[in-house]
Structures are given as structure tokens and as C-alpha cells.
Design brief:
Order of helices and strands: EEHHHHHHHH
Radius of gyration: 20 Å
Strand content: 5-15%
Structural class: mainly alpha
Shape: globular
Distance between the termini: 36 Å
Number of helices: 8
Mean pLDDT: 92
Length: 197
């Protein structure tokens, strides 16, 4: 473990202010401890993730697999938890800072959902499951559940439209490069930055 002793908050003037509660961060993380205590070889087989994986299986009709085939299930389960916590803590999805990180995570989860065959927004449907799993320990999730679902669904719907437009552009780029194996930097950047590829 990489032990970090959490004791102070460094202020803008570089002075150290004692924290109201000190602790040691072991780096083990809740998920790793849960996997150890539950005797599972993977975080995704613990009670912290299994209900999400099961819900994704139900919605998609595609069984989860621990191999690379299960990557979409794992990414979606992981990212929806981050989105729920971030939005519950008042982070707004945006084009800068923390909001940009959340937006990129949502878009990545959407792309993996597309690999499972989803054509409509589905991430917001997982918020209830996150609230069941973690809502007792983190009541802000339960209290803000409707708002969290609304924000995720709106962003998801918007991105799916953008992704659809981007796929059309991607097909045009592929047609344009023909037998070449490399697309232009301008096209690659536009697909990445504007369309979330």
C-alpha cells in the first residue's frame, strides 16, 4: 500500500491548516477491499458493481463476461457511478475543468453502450441502481436522484445526436482517404474534439 497521512489543508498563502478529521489513505480503495472481503477475483464481481452489471445485462440482453468481451459492461458500470457522484456534488457537465471530465466519461460510456446495441439513452436508467447500492452511505445520491437522472438523460440525448452526426462525418472521412491507412490530423481532431470519438 502507498500510505498517505491526511492531516492538513494547504491554504493559498502556503500555511498548513489542521483538518477536522485526520486519517490514513492506504490506496486500497473501497472496491479493492470489497473484492478481498467477498473473495472475488475482480471488483466487478462484488456487490458494489454486480447489480449494475446485472441491470446492463437486462437492458442490453447481452450477458456479461470477465474477458475483453465484457469491457462495455465494466466501463458503463464504472462511469455511471462517477457521473452520479459528480452530479450529486454539484459538478455541471461542461467544456472545462471537472465538468469536462464528467462529460468525457459520459460520452465514453455512451460509445460503449452503442457497442451493446443501444440506440437510445440508457445511462440515466442506471441511476436508481447506483442509489440502491450506495444511497445509504451517500444520502445525497438518493436526495438528488431525480435531478441526476434528468442531467444525465439530457446530456446523453444530446451526445447521441452529436455521435450520429459524427458517424456520418466519419464515413465521409473513410471514403475520402480510400485505400490510405491514415486520416488527416484535422479530420481526426474534429472527430475527437467536436464529435467525441
Amino acid at each position: 500500500w502507498n500510505l498517505v497521512f491526511i492531516q492538513y489543508n494547504r491554504l493559498a498563502n502556503k500555511t498548513l491548516e489542521p483538518l477536522p478529521a485526520c486519517h490514513v489513505d492506504t490506496g486500497a480503495g473501497l472496491e479493492r477491499i470489497a473484492a478481498y472481503l467477498q473473495g472475488t477475483p475482480s471488483n466487478y464481481q462484488t456487490d458494489l458493481f454486480k447489480p449494475l452489471i446485472n441491470k446492463i445485462e437486462t437492458l442490453s440482453g447481452i450477458a456479461y463476461d470477465e474477458s475483453a468481451v465484457g469491457m462495455p459492461h465494466r466501463v458503463i458500470a464504472d462511469h455511471i457511478r462517477t457521473l452520479v457522484f459528480g452530479i450529486a456534488d454539484n459538478v455541471l457537465l461542461s467544456n472545462e475543468g471537472r465538468g469536462y471530465v464528467l462529460r468525457r466519461l459520459l460520452r465514453r460510456a455512451c460509445r460503449y453502450a452503442k457497442q451493446l446495441g443501444f440506440k437510445e439513452a440508457i445511462l440515466y436508467q442506471l441511476v436508481d441502481t447506483v442509489a440502491i447500492i450506495l444511497g445509504e452511505a451517500y444520502p445525497q445520491i438518493k436526495q438528488r436522484k431525480a435531478y441526476i437522472k434528468q442531467v444525465i438523460k439530457a446530456e446523453e440525448d444530446s451526445f447521441l445526436q452529436t455521435l450520429h452526426t459524427g458517424l456520418t462525418l466519419f464515413e465521409q472521412v473513410v471514403e475520402k482517404i480510400g485505400s490510405q491507412s491514415v486520416m488527416s490530423g484535422d479530420d481526426a481532431f474534429k472527430l475527437y474534439d467536436t464529435y467525441g470519438f
